[in-house]
Amino acid sequence: MNEVDTYRHKGLRKELAVKLRDKGISERNVLMAIETVPRHLFFGKDTIFFESHAYEDKAFPIGENQTISQPFTVAYQSELLLVNPREKILEIGTGSGYQAAVLATIGAKVFTIERHRKLFERTKPLLEQLGYSNIKCFFGDGFEGLPTYAPFDKIIITASVNELPKKLLQQLPTGGKMVIPFGTETNCKMVRITKEGEDQYSEEVFGKFAFVPMLRGKVF
Predict the structure, then answer these.
(1) pLDDT confidence of residue 173
(2) Kindly report the CA angle at 58 between 52 and 62, in degrees rounded to 5?
(3) How many domains in the chain?
(4) Sheet with 200-209: strands ordered across
(5) In a domain, 219, yes or no
(6) Per-residue pLDDT tens for 51-68?
(7) Residue 16 located in a structural domain
(8) Is 69 a catalytic residue?
(9) Per the domain annotation, does 127 fall within a domain?
């Protein structure tokens, strides 16, 4: 990893963290994670092609009609989660693995689900190679969650949904939180849901974003 993560990359990450702070990200642990995680290594086969763009605040395609999210979006969702060290976090939509790596760097124990077999088979060994021992990857339907490993302190969904995923809400304990992009693919609002009690939830609504849609089932 040291051979492909250079001082230049580290300098670009510092600049990116400053840009995100200027855009409103204030949590020090989130900015530290952005400054630490080598985003350029999460672009799959196109790492070299995208290397010069990896630390721009933009999303990029990673195959299977999926993207590596814009750094601001990753930081924004991470900040809304209010992550504490050693918390169990369920991520729906592993994708490139970048969001999971940011959460793991903050100190969470991450359980992440990917529905695309090709992305799963690419990202799982990458995260292992990069030393993220506190990330466990699963191939499956995100709408089902991981009931065997529940409850989770927090749940993050990295795709837009237009209906609340009830099975996921059931995998939160009282006091648990879910950050979810709610709405249509190009026009969704970021929502933080807190479980107040059995079948009792409160929600807070934040900014608007664009996400690929969350779909049911698995893709082989």
Answers:
(1) 97
(2) 80
(3) 1
(4) 135-139, 109-114, 88-92, 154-157, 177-184, 187-197, 200-209
(5) no
(6) 768 899 998 888 877 888
(7) no
(8) yes
(9) yes
